[in-house]
Amino acid sequence: xxxxxxxxxxxxxxxxxxxxxxxxxxxxxxxxxxxxxxxxxxxxxxxxxxxxxxxxxxxxxxxxxxxxxxxxxxxxxxxxxxxxxxxxxxxxxxxxxxxxxxxxxxxxxxxxxxxxxxxxxxxxxxxxxxxxxxxxxxxxxxxxxxxxxxxxxxxxxxxxxxxxxxxxxxxxxxxxxxxxxxxxxxxxxxxxxxxxxxxxxxxxxxxxxxxxxxxxxxxxxxxxxxxxxxxxxxxxxxxxxxxxxxxxxxxxxxxxxxxxxxxxxxxxxxxxxxxxxxxxxxxxxxxxxxxxxxxxxxxxxxxxxxxxxxxxxxxxxxxxxxxxxxxxxxxxxxxxxxxxxxxxxxxxxxxxxxxxxxxxxxxxxxxxxxxxxxxxxxxxxxxxxxxxxxxxxxxxxxxxxxxxxxxxxxxxxxxxxxxxxxxxxxxxxxxxxxxxxxxxxxxxxxxxxxxxxxxxxxxxxxxxxxxxxxxxxxxxxxxxxxxxxxxxxxxxxxxxxxxxxxxxxxxxxxxxxxxxxxxxxxxxxxxxxxxxxxxxxxxxxxxxxxxxxxxxxxxxxxxxxxxxxxxxxxxxxxxxxxxxxxxxxxxxxxxxxxxxxxxxxxxxxxxxxxxxxxxxxxxxxxxxxxxxxxxxxxxxxxxxxxxxxxxxxxx
Amino acid sequence: xxxxxxxxxxxxxxxxxxxxxxxxxxxxxxxxxxxxxxxxxxxxxxxxxxxxxxxxxxxxxxxxxxxxxxxxxxxxxxxxxxxxxxxxxxxxxxxxxxxxxxxxxxxxxxxxxxxxxxxxxxxxxxxxxxxxxxxxxxxxxxxxxxxxxxxxxxxxxxxxxxxxxxxxxxxxxxxxxxxxxxxxxxxxxxxxxxxxxxxxxxxxxxxxxxxxxxxxxxxxxxxxxxxxxxxxxxxxxxxxxxxxxxxxxxxxxxxxxxxxxxxxxxxxxxxxxxxxxxxxxxxxxxxxxxxxxxxxxxxxxxxxxxxxxxxxxxxxxxxxxxxxxxxxxxxxxxxxxxxxxxxxxxxxxxxxxxxxxxxxxxxxxxxxxxxxxxxxxxxxxxxxxxxxxxxxxxxxxxxxxxxxxxxxxxxxxxxxxxxxxxxxxxxxxxxxxxxxxxxxxxxxxxxxxxxxxxxxxxxxxxxxxxxxxxxxxxxxxxxxxxxxxxxxxxxxxxxxxxxxxxxxxxxxxxxxxxxxxxxxxxxxxxxxxxxxxxxxxxxxxxxxxxxxxxxxxxxxxxxxxxxxxxxxxxxxxxxxxxxxxxxxxxxxxxxxxxxxxxxxxxxxxxxxxxxxxxxxxxxxxxxxxxxxxxxxxxxxxxxxxxxxxxxxxxx
Lengths: 651, 651
Hints:
The structure is a homodimer.
Chain A: E1 6-10, E2 14-17, H1 24-31, E3 49-51, H2 64-69, H3 72-77, E4 79-81, E5 91-94, E6 121-127, H4 139-151, E7 157-158, H5 160-163, H6 166-172, E8 176-182, E9 186-192, E10 200-206, E11 210-217, E12 223-230, H7 240-247, H8 251-276, E13 283-290, H9 292-299, H10 304-307, E14 319-322, H11 323-326, E15 335-338, H12 348-357, E16 366-370, E17 375-381, E18 384-390, E19 411-417, E20 424-428, E21 436-437, H13 439-451, E22 470-472, E23 477-482, E24 493-496, H14 497-521, E25 530-534, H15 536-540, H16 543-548, E26 560-564, H17 566-576, H18 578-590, E27 591-593, H19 602-609, H20 621-624, H21 628-647
Parallel strand pairs in A: 1-5, 7-9, 10-13, 13-15, 16-25, 18-27, 19-21, 25-26
Antiparallel strand pairs in A: 1-2, 3-4, 6-8, 8-9, 10-11, 11-12, 14-15, 16-17, 17-18, 19-20, 22-23, 23-24
C-alpha cells in the first residue's frame, strides 16, 4: 500500500494525509476547514463547492449530482461538490469565497508616512482655437501649442495609438478636451469636455500569499478605497521557490502564473472601482511592489535565475510599462511603475518598506524586518544600509504546523499559558470556535511554554511538569491547546514536537540573518535605536514573545514599532510622488546586499540560533531574565555546546 | 440603354468605355493593354489571369474553365481569366506581373547628395562578466555596465518585451552577445555571438502611384539594393482625393488602405532582402516619405481632414513608430521614422526633396518642382522657403488622355514632329510596338504641335495646315501619331482635342502655383538661379518642351537640373544621418505654406496660364522666340483677352 494522499486546502493552507476514498467534505470537516455545507453531504444543497485547478484526475470523476447542481461554466472551471468528490491522490483544493463561512484577515493597513503630493499624472482641460484657411496648423501641433500657451507645458509628446483618435475627438468635442499627461512628457489619454477631476491611481503590494491594492485620488493625494485578495498563485506553490519551480516548467507555466496574478490585481481594482463608481479608464497609473519573484512573475519575466545560484534578478531598477501590455484593467495607455528590487530575495517590497519607514534618512541605526515565507532584514541609517533575506519558510503562515492555518475566522491568534495551572487561554479570530492556529499564536505558545517550563531552550517538550495537557501523541510528544469538545475540529488541537522543530528552523534562519548583518556593520544589539516590524504577520505577533523565542535581536520593547503593510505604504508614496520614486531608486543603489549562502559563518551562527532564545545567552540579556526557571534545565549544557560550535572550522 | 461600362486596367492606367458583354481579354486587346494570352482565348492556357479587387459582381460569374484553371487561393483573392470574364459594369482590373509581357518603368534613381554617416542604429558586440555569488548584479544592469565600460554608452534603456528574452539569451550565448542600439537611447534587439556587421536600414518613398524602396548598409552608408512597385492602393482611387474619399468610408476602408500599402512596402523589402540574402531581422530602421495623404494612410491615420477645407494634417512633425505596430516585415522592435509634413498637400516627400536638393541652404533663390497628380512647388533659399501644391491631376500619368498610359514597355515616351513634313517620330520604351503615350511624350507632342503650327496658343488643333494626320475623329479633331498598322492597338494612336484640354488645365494649375509663389516673394523668373525638377515624370520630360507649353516659369535651360526621385534621396539621407533628420525638422518649420484655395488672384492667374505657354507672353521671353510661326495666329487676340482678365474683379 502506497502513502496516504495529502490534501491541501486553500486559502487556509491546512493540509493533512487522509485515507484513500475520503470525500473532500469529510477531509475538510476532519481538519476543521471552513467549508459551507447546508444539506450535510446529501448531494442536494449544492453549496459545498470547491475548485480543483490542477491534477483533476486525483479526485473521482463527476457524479450525476454534480452534473445537475453545477453550471456548465463551473464544470469547465474545475468546480466540484465536496460531498461527492473522493480523494484518490494528493491534491490542492481551493475553497472559493462563496463556499466559506468566515473570512480571511488580509492585512492592508500600514503606517501613514507623509509625502509631498507630486503625482506623475496631471489632467488639464483645454480649449483649442479652430483651424481655418489662415491657420492650417495640424491637430497635434495645435494641441501642443495650446498646452504651451495655457499651461506652460512644452514639448508634450503623443503616442502613435492615441494620435489616430485625435482628429475625430477634437471635432466631436468642438475643440474642448481634457488631456491626461504623464510625467510632463506624454499624453496618455484625452476625452471630450472638462474631466480634470477624475484622476486616479492604484498602488499594489503583491505578496507571495496576499495582494493588497489601494485606490488613490491623484489630484488630492487621498486614499479612496482599498482591497485585498489571496494571491491566486498560491495553488501553484505556497512558497517562492515552489512558485519559481512551477514557472520554470515552461513558457506556458510562466504565462499562467502571470495571467493569474494580473487577474487577481484586476479583481481588486474592479472591486474598489465598483465600490466608488470610478471608471477603470480614469485610473491612469499603478505602482507595483513585491518580492523579486512576484515582481518577475507579475511582468511575465522568468524568475528561473532568481531561484538558481547566484540568484541574479533579470532587472534591478524600476520599470515603466504600458498598462495594456500587462493586461491591467486600468486606462490601457496608463503607466505601470514597478519599483526597483535589490537582489534575488530582497525585492521591491523591501525597498518600499524602507521608503515608508524612512530608515534611509535616519541618523540613528535602525532595524527593519518583514517576516514571511521569506524574511527580509535591513539594518542601517542614512550612512548606509545592509540587507539580507532568509528562507524562513511558511511555518509562520501555518504551513508545516499540524494545526497551522492562515489568519482567518476561527484561527487561534493569541495564546497565554497560566504559569501555575499550565492551562492555556486561546483567543480566536471573530471569536469563532477554534479551527487551528495562526502564526502569531504559534509564536505565543512557544514563548509561553518556554516561560512556564513546558519546553526547554533546546525546544524539547518536557514531561516532568505534571501537566495533563502534555502527552504522547501519534507522532511524538504534544501539548493540547484545545480539547475537541471546544473545537471546530474532530480532534484536539495540539502543538506537536515537530511543530516546534519547524519554528526553530524558521526563527534560527531569521536570527542568523540579523546577526550576520550586525557583524557586517560591526554593531551590537545596543547600537540599534529603532526597530520596525513590517508585514501582516508582524502586525499581529507579540514582539516580546518573538524576542523570547529569539526570532530577532534583543531590542528593547519601547524601540520596536509595528508598521503593518509598510510595503503598501511605500507603493502609495511612489504613486503620489515623483520624488519618492527617485528616492526608491537611490535606496536600491544604496543598499549593500549580503548573501547568506556566501557567508562562511552562516552555519555556525545558525546552529546557535536554533536554541530558544539562543545558545549564547549573552546575546539576549533582557530576555533571559524572563526565563530563569527554564534556564536551570539547560544552562550548564549550553556552555559546552557553545564551545564546541565556536571551535568549528569555517569551511 | 444606360452608359457603356468603363474599364480601367492597372498598372498601366489605360481606360475606355466598352460594350456590355465584352470579355476582359477583348477589352485589353482593343486598348493595347499588356496582357499575356497563349491560347488566344480558348480557355485552355490559363495564362490571362487578372485580379478584381472590388465590385467583383461587375463581371459575369465564374465559369467552369476558371474553376478548373485557377487555384483555390487565386479564386479567393479575386483572380479571373480575362478570356472568360465578361464586363457587365464599370470595373478596375489589375493585371498581375505574371500576366504581363513587358515591365513598368518605375523611377527609383535620384541625385546622390553626400551626407555624413551618422546612422541611428549601432551594433556592438559585448562580452559580459559572468555573475557569481560575489557579483549578483542583475542581467540588465550587468549589460548596461558592460556597455558603459566597453563602449562609453551610458544609460541605455531596454524595453519590456526584450527584457523577457534577455536572461535566456545571455546564458545561451555564454555571455557574448551583439546588441543593437537605437539613437544611443535604447536596445532594440540582441543576438548571440558577434553580429555587428549585419546592420541594415530601409528608405521608402510612398508615392500616390509608385513605391520605391532602398536597402542601405547602416555601417557603411552604401546602397545595397533597390526596388519599386506600383502603389497597390491605386485600384482604390487613382488620385489623392479619391484615395481620401475611400478612406473616409469608414474605419474598415482606412484599415484596408493601410494594410495594402504596408503589404506593398513589405513586398519590396522582401524582394531586396531575398536578392541580397539579408535577414529581415537585420533591418533595424525604416524611413518613410510620402505626400501627406500617403503619410497618413501608411500610418492608418484618417486623412479625412486633409481632404476637407481647411485641409489640416493630423500631425506635421516627424514620428517614430515601433515596426511591429505598423506590421512592417523588418526587425519588429526596429524603428520606423516618418519624416515631417508641411501641410495637407505639401508632404514629407517635399521635405525630403528639399533636403536632397539642399535649397534650404542655398544663397541663391532656387525653384523646386515635383510634378505628379499633385504637384508641389517650392521657391526660396537659406533666407526662407515658400511652398504650395496644385491639383495638376493625373493627366501627366496618362489618365484622362485617350491613349495615355504609364511609362511601361510599349509606351511612346518621346515625340518629334518634322516641321516640314509635319510627320511625327515616336520612340517607345523597350523599342516595342507602340501601345499608348506616356507623360513625357504628351508634353513633347503638344510642344511640337505648337512649334510646327499644328495647334495655336489657345490649344486649338488647327486645320489649315494640310496635314493628313489631322482629321475629324469620333470625339473631335485629332492628330494621328501612329497608324494602327504600326501599333499594338487595334486603332490608330491619336492625340485628341480633349487630351489637349486636360493638359492645359494641368499645366495651368502648376504655372499658377509657381506664379503666386513668385509674387509672394516679390521676385521674377530672372531672380531664380537654379531649378530642380523632381519625380519620375520630371526625369523623362524634355524641360525645353515643358517650358514651351508653359508648365513652369521660363527659367534658362542651363539652370534646370533633373534630380529624379529626390524624395527617395531625402529618405536615404534621413536613414543615414541623425543630422539630416534634424534638418528635415528645421525645413518643415522654415517653410511658409501658401494656400492657393485662399488666394484671390488664383482664378485670374489660372485663366491666363491656360494658354500655351501663357496669355501674357512677356512672362516667357525666351520661349516665344521658338514660337514665331504660331504666334501670328493668336498674338493680337492675346492682348484683348489679357486686358479683359486683368480687369476682372478680385472676389
